[in-house]
Design brief:
alpha/beta; TIM Barrel; 8-stranded parallel barrel; 8 strands
């Protein structure tokens, strides 16, 4: 494993206001909230594209797919509005250069009380499939994020995410590992190996302290990175769920991330 080095790219989930700081810190990409660039007008979106092109980093990934006020499961959802949004979100992600669209949005997909879970599963799965079909035309991956049970009741762990991936049945629709969500769902790092065929993206943070990981010898992070790169060599690694503080702290985090890869044998 250590004999064949793989090129790993590192990014951070944050808002567009942090682009220049991420570039200064040395990260490869920013992972923007999809709804933030999908709901902007054409002038604002054009300005964002220009800012990214001049920043020195790229927008290779996106998360927070649905707008905060959307509900995508239940008996009264606006299907036309949802599918129209999916078209625009994928189109704009492609324009930005996004290669991986993460669809998490736990509260938005939460199944209303009394609504059949199997129907909600199909509703959400069909939306994912539609997004996947659009993304496939541009060689873009869709990764469904398992969200811990305290935030949603639909696709809350890796096992359920694997079932959704099987339901969608598209080669460019997979799931992902997220250390924060895994810790809240009872998933273990060993399960990354178990569900390795389904995993194509990684989010991580210092779960205990809710911050960027900066300890280069953090055994949990090394184990996570080893598991992830074993099943997805050369995959992207994104910091998610922790606030950006300073450029110096971001640099320390990037140094730690690179050491996790090294210590994992890649």
């Amino acid at each position: 494993m250590g004999l064949n080095k793989v090129a790993v790219r590192f990014g951070v989930c944050t808002g567009s206001e942090k682009i220049s700081q991420l570039a200064e810190a040395g990260f490869d990409y920013i992972e923007l909230p999809a709804h933030s660039f999908t709901l902007t007008d054409e002038k604002e979106f054009s300005s964002l594209c220009k800012e990214i092109s001049q920043s020195g980093i790229v927008c290779e990934a996106s998360n927070f797919f649905y707008p905060l006020d959307y509900r995508v499961t239940g008996s009264d959802i606006d299907t036309k509005k949802i599918y129209g949004y999916i078209v625009k979100a994928v189109e704009r992600a492609v324009t930005l250069g996004v290669k991986n669209i993460t669809i998490g949005s736990g509260p938005q997909r939460k199944v209303p009380e009394g609504f059949p879970m199997e129907d909600a599963f199909r509703q959400f799965g069909d939306q994912i499939k539609y997004a996947g079909e659009l993304a496939a035309k541009h060689d873009v991956m869709i990764t469904v994020e398992p969200i811990r049970p305290e935030s949603t009741n639909l696709v809350t762990n890796l096992a359920e995410a694997a079932k959704l991936v099987e339901y969608v049945n598209l080669p460019n629709v997979k799931t992902m590992a997220d250390l924060n969500q895994m810790s809240g769902a009872g998933d273990t790092i060993d399960m990354v190996y178990e569900y390795g065929a389904y995993i194509k993206h990684l989010h991580t943070i210092d779960v205990k302290n809710r911050c960027f990981p900066v300890d280069p010898d953090d055994k949990e992070q090394i184990a996570l990175v080893k598991a992830y790169l074993s099943v997805n060599p050369g995959g992207r690694i994104t910091i998610e769920g922790a606030p950006f503080t300073t450029v110096e702290n971001a640099r320390l985090c990037l140094t730690a991330l690179k050491n996790y890869v090294k210590e994992a044998g890649f």
